[in-house]
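Folding Query — how this chain folds
Tokens — whole-number codes for backbone shape
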Amino acid sequence: MTLPLWTLFVAVFLPYVWFSIANPLRKAEFGVLDNRHPRLQEAKQTGMGARANAASLNAFEALAIYTPAVLVAHVLSPESALAPKLAVAWLVLRVAHGAFYVADKPAGRTASFALATLCAVALFLVGAHVL
């Protein structure tokens, strides 16, 4: 398996990292986890727990762009030296994005989001043999 595909494998689990932070914070905030209506309880969550939950949701959303980007680069330009670098950069930036989100550092969060998005776009361009 190529390095970009390994980063995709790791990326699939990132939402669960942030969720594993959000869930105990939700229990601490409300005293109990409402597993009958978890989304209603999550909607009432505040502070770090709410941010960790939002980071989890955003990590799921990011997969919608990253997954096809990696696959396009992998299939159409398998010998690219740039694709692995972009893939690792994307993963590092997405980990940073979640950490900034949880830590309430909006400038870092925005910068890491934007740079990771550029990495994903660049992976599409690698597949198109533009980069």
